[in-house]
Design goal:
There is one protein chain. The chain contains two helices and five strands, in the order ββαβββα. It is mainly beta and 149 residues long. It is elongated.
């Protein structure tokens, strides 16, 4: 299983797109960074958090996150490497929203915060491995090979 968290921006007025940057980790101890690009259709906009702060009477003070949406995945099958793919997603919400993977079986992929509306998007995800426990053995074997010559 892979867990993920991301921060990004997405918007659509009939046609639109977006970009999410995230961190992934799986049950085998691998860690990676992800970049997801969205292109699709819908009516969706990120809410400037300053507006939310005004709405909540000053209880939210993270102005530096203005116009960003947050999402957290709830356990995605496979390893971090399996997340590098093309897919389809749908998003809907009002301040608090949800996202669903529409590629194969319809599957809940996470909660979002900070957007209004919804859309259907074609997605592409690139994963950049940061750590893989298998690298320890690879480095050990490489050092043994170098020391034997």
């Amino acid at each position: 299983m892979t867990q993920s968290g991301s921060i990004g921006i997405r918007g659509a007025a009939v046609f639109g797109g977006g970009l999410d940057l995230g961190v992934l980790h799986d049950s085998d101890g691998r860690i990676g960074a992800s970049v997801k690009v969205y292109l699709g259709t819908g009516v969706e906009a990120s809410i400037p958090l300053k507006c939310l702060d005004n709405f909540l009477k000053g209880k939210l003070s993270h102005h530096f996150l203005s116009k960003l949406s947050l999402a957290q995945g709830d356990g995605i099958p496979g390893t971090i490497y399996d997340q590098m793919q093309l897919g389809y997603e749908t998003h809907a919400g009002f301040i608090l929203g949800t996202s669903f993977d529409m590629q194969n079986d319809v599957r809940f992929t996470g909660w979002e915060f900070g957007s209004i509306g919804g859309g259907v998007y074609r997605t592409g995800t690139l994963v950049i491995p940061i750590w893989d426990p298998a690298w320890v053995d690879l480095f050990r074997n490489l050092l043994n090979y170098i020391n034997c010559e």
